[in-house]
Amino acid sequence: MAGQRPAVRQRTGRHRPDQRRTHQHRGVHQMSTVAVIGLGIMGLPMATNLCKAGHDVIGFNRSQGRIDRLVANGGRGATSVADAVRDADVIITMLPDSPDVESVAGGEDGLIANAKSGAIWVDASTIRPDVAIRLAQAASARGIRPVDAPVSGGEQGAIEAALSIMVGGEAADVEAARPVLEAVGSTIVHVGPSGSGQTVKAANQLIVAGTIQLVAEALVFLEAHEVDTESAIRVLAGGLAGNRILDRKAAAMAARTFEPGFRVDLHHKDLGIVTAAAREAGVAIPLGAMTAQLMGALRAQGHGSLDHSALLLLVEQLSGRSRD
Ligand code: NAD
């Protein structure tokens, strides 16, 4: 694109090696001014890791408390979306849902109207692929370089900078975003053009929800047969049934601890994305659709704030084995 500045600039003078760890990429120290909008469960630790990697991070969130926490962690606070993005080389949005990203992106005070030409916009939120494509077109028309980069790995992955990131966009834009993505993730894969990162994330959420449901059914089944679930989980994890849900969530599920993690509300949103996108493509996802119904039922029962592994509560209920 004509008149574009490189999104990632080399900075030497302001860099203080005693206080900041530089990010080494292709033999040069590359640091950017990075705006992060949405400092929630995921956005705050991601912004904090960007500070630790030596980037100049400016954050904005709807509630001031989260901005204050970023400032305490080494970032700067912005007073609005426009204030956050104005001087940013890279802008990351980490917001709950499609309408949130649309509202931050659009309008006179929004991201697209106020970001500088040539800035990279990484939307790390999980949103509808069709919305991601539409927003990418609107951003490109203003000289902003859009990358959809939804993440997997949960709060722990965000804290440990170990997220898996599925990236959609133009190859050159993805490469320009890579040093920033590498500060928050460990597996970064360019999967195709704009919107395809969101499509891959939808597939991710389909697999995760279905796996949680099957692990929940297995646990209630094992308990009904009075098998020691801890031993069962250990041996199952070593065989073909082994999976990350067993590794990371089964023990807490067996103990009926459902602290989020990833909220039922958000997984309900994601399964809406999956079922709509599957329908649009003419693909049948019977197990996914069933799991989407169960996630919706769990939410309707008032459990939207629990971890998605609370699907186990429904299995218990359907089996007449609820504990309360
Ligand atoms: P969250 O609700 O904790 O954080 C969202 C933040 O955005 C909140 O702090 C909120 O105040 C802020 N916000 C909302 N609208 C805003 C606006 N208009 N302007 C400024 N700030 C605004 O959500 P989260 O768990 O961090 O998830 C964010 C996204 O990442 C979601 O799309 C989610 O599906 C996805 N995700 C979450 C996880 C997880 O484990 N939590 C894992 C992978 C992906």
UniProtKB/TrEMBL annotation:
<feature type="domain" description="3-hydroxyisobutyrate dehydrogenase-like NAD-binding">
    <location>
        <begin position="195"/>
        <end position="313"/>
    </location>
</feature>
<dbReference type="InterPro" id="IPR006398">
    <property type="entry name" value="Tartro_sem_red"/>
</dbReference>
<dbReference type="GO" id="GO:0051287">
    <property type="term" value="F:NAD binding"/>
</dbReference>
<keyword id="KW-0560">Oxidoreductase</keyword>
<dbReference type="InterPro" id="IPR008927">
    <property type="entry name" value="6-PGluconate_DH-like_C_sf"/>
</dbReference>
<dbReference type="Pfam" id="PF03446">
    <property type="entry name" value="NAD_binding_2"/>
</dbReference>
<dbReference type="GO" id="GO:0016054">
    <property type="term" value="P:organic acid catabolic process"/>
</dbReference>
<feature type="domain" description="6-phosphogluconate dehydrogenase NADP-binding">
    <location>
        <begin position="33"/>
        <end position="192"/>
    </location>
</feature>
<dbReference type="InterPro" id="IPR002204">
    <property type="entry name" value="3-OH-isobutyrate_DH-rel_CS"/>
</dbReference>
<dbReference type="GO" id="GO:0050661">
    <property type="term" value="F:NADP binding"/>
</dbReference>
<dbReference type="InterPro" id="IPR036291">
    <property type="entry name" value="NAD(P)-bd_dom_sf"/>
</dbReference>
<dbReference type="InterPro" id="IPR029154">
    <property type="entry name" value="HIBADH-like_NADP-bd"/>
</dbReference>
<feature type="active site">
    <location>
        <position position="201"/>
    </location>
</feature>
<dbReference type="GO" id="GO:0046487">
    <property type="term" value="P:glyoxylate metabolic process"/>
</dbReference>
<feature type="region of interest" description="Disordered">
    <location>
        <begin position="1"/>
        <end position="28"/>
    </location>
</feature>
<dbReference type="Pfam" id="PF14833">
    <property type="entry name" value="NAD_binding_11"/>
</dbReference>
<dbReference type="InterPro" id="IPR006115">
    <property type="entry name" value="6PGDH_NADP-bd"/>
</dbReference>
<dbReference type="InterPro" id="IPR015815">
    <property type="entry name" value="HIBADH-related"/>
</dbReference>
<comment type="similarity">
    <text>Belongs to the HIBADH-related family.</text>
</comment>
<protein>
    <submittedName>
        <fullName>2-hydroxy-3-oxopropionate reductase</fullName>
        <ecNumber>1.1.1.60</ecNumber>
    </submittedName>
</protein>
<keyword id="KW-0520">NAD</keyword>
<dbReference type="InterPro" id="IPR013328">
    <property type="entry name" value="6PGD_dom2"/>
</dbReference>
<dbReference type="GO" id="GO:0008679">
    <property type="term" value="F:2-hydroxy-3-oxopropionate reductase activity"/>
</dbReference>
